[in-house]
Amino acid sequence: MALLLRLIINAVAIWLASHFVHNIELISPADNGTTGKVIVVLIVAVIFGLVNALIKPLVKLLSLPLVVLSLGLFLLVINALMLWLTATITETTAYGLRIHGFVAAVLGAIIITVVNWILGIFVPEGGRK
After folding, report:
1. Quick one: DSSP state of residue 1?
2. How many CB atoms within 10 Å of residue 55?
3. Do 109 and 76 touch, CB atoms closer than 8 A?
4. What Cα–Cα distance (Å) separates residue 46 from each residue in 69, 96, 101?
5. How far is CA 66 from the centre of its chain?
6. Residue 9 to residue 15: CA distance in whole angstroms
7. What are the backbone dihedrals phi and psi of residue 56, each rounded to the nearest 5 degrees, phi first?
8. CB distance 89 to 51 below 8 Å
9. What is the DSSP string of 40-94?
10. Each residue's pLDDT tens digit, 54-111
11. Quick check: 23 and 100 in contact, CB under 8 A?
């Protein structure tokens, strides 16, 4: 249940980032209405979750000296790169996430991080009781 809630939180965060940052778009091939857009956001959220689960730990480990030297600010760049990688993966299809520029990726990463932090307070951890 917590995994499904995290997926929904990621989807809301990605939707908010695409809504507030001008150069981030969610593309659906046909105008399917709200249902089509929700499905696209959920698919992008699943891909974003997989990228964060599989690739982000390795990138964080390899960039540990930069993270320490920047007092953790380089983690923002890593988050932006993970968002950009998600957009690159979804560019191979007619739907998905499109990011135009690295600054847009950084702004989107900030929004996604803040929304995940705020909404994540209400989701219980797996090991916590």
Report:
1. -
2. 15
3. yes
4. 32, 11, 22
5. 22
6. 10
7. -60, -40
8. yes
9. HHHHHHHHHHHHHHHTHHHHHHHTHHHHHHTTTTHHHHHHHHHHHHHHHHHTTSS
10. 999 999 999 999 999 999 999 999 999 999 999 999 998 888 999 999 999 999 999 9
11. yes
119 within 8 A of 12, measured Cβ to Cβ: yes
Structure tokens at 2: 């917590």
Type of residue numbered 99:
I
Q: Using the structure block, give the residue that is written with the tokens 């998600």.
A: 86
End-to-end, the C-alpha distance of the chain in Å comes to: 14
- Read off the pLDDT of residues 2-27 as tens digits, 9 standing for 90 and up: 889 999 999 999 999 999 999 999 98
CA–CA separation, 28 vs 39, rounded Å? 9
Q: What DSSP state is assigned to residue 23?
A: T
How many CB atoms are located within 10 Å of the residue 74 CB? 17
- What tokens does 30 get? 């046909």
